[in-house]
Request: fold
Amino acid sequence: MRVVQNVFEPKASRILRVLLLNPSRTWTIRELASEARVAYGYVHAIVATLTRNRYVVRNEAYRLEVVDPIRILRRWAAYHQFDAVNTVSNYYTFEREVDNLIKGFRSKATDHALTGLAGAWLVAPQVRPIAVDAYVHSQREEKRLAQDLGLKLIPKDGNVRLIIPYDDGVFYKPQVIDEVNVVSNVQLFVDLYNHPARGEEAAVSLLPLIEKDWSRALLGAKRNV
Reply:
């Protein structure tokens, strides 16, 4: 049976998101491949490794379910290197108040989602950001959003960073908070964990919310049995 040595590599991230953001569901490999939009053979190999490492098991109906989501999430986050895998462009705006910077992203026509400390600030205000990080799908969307917000491209240390992600899976199951698009709490945790400016602290502040969502989903699934 083919296995993948590193289930936390960027290509596998779509599968991890599907498993972690649908805690009440069980899966066949074909269903998982369809939801993650990944080739069946690759999902089969990832599942073989996840099963071998006891991240997932097969239940009595021979369907896949997650054993310990927190363990998977922490391992994935520890491996993930945000700046290394993404394409980051630094921008500057004269607006210095971070709350106003965030409000600027409300109801924009471009397809984007906040992440990092700015995203966490909307979800669970713990560490006040000094910059705003936002994913965009493409360079075209980046330029359109920069123009819309009146941003100036600079070499480094911008107070707004527009990011073309290593994979569009980062947009899976986003949330809208105060009219601003934000990535899922799972994606926020992964992006923040190795962030140098108190990122781990902000990530840990999200764990109670993530665990609450999982508990609520699992309870609902049991009631529907």
